[in-house]
Amino acid sequence: MLGIIQPELADIAGVSLRSLIDIENGTGNPTLVQIMKLLDALGLKIKIVSKYEYD
After folding, report:
1. What are the 10-residue block averages of pLDDT along the chain, 55 residues in total?
2. How is the chain classified by DSSP, letter by letter?
3. What is the pLDDT of residue 2?
4. Which of 7, 40, 45, 51 is the most exposed place for a label (fewest CB within 10 A)?
5. Which residues are within 8 A (CB) of 10 and not within 5 positions of it... i.e. 6 or more apart?
6. What is the distance between the alpha carbons of residues 52 and 55, in angstroms, rounded to a whole number?
7. CA–CA distance from 15 to each of 1, 2, 41, 46, 54 (Å)?
8. Predicted pLDDT at 14
9. b/e sequence 12-31, b meaning 16+ C-beta within 10 Å
10. Global pTM?
């Protein structure tokens, strides 16, 4: 838990509060840019791998 509230996260990430709320509620349709901004603000990243890649 980061201890920040939605308006703070939206501000840090540079996305609108409405967009963040919609994403959290599952009703949003975020762009890749919005997703990357939120991940960056949270200190996270995504990794895309081939479904044929074996560990």
Report:
1. 90 97 96 96 91 74
2. -----HHHHHHHHT--HHHHHHHHHT-----HHHHHHHHHHTT-------TT---
3. 75
4. 51
5. 16, 17, 19, 20
6. 10
7. 20, 18, 10, 18, 36
8. 97
9. ebebeeebbeebeeeeeeee
10. 0.80
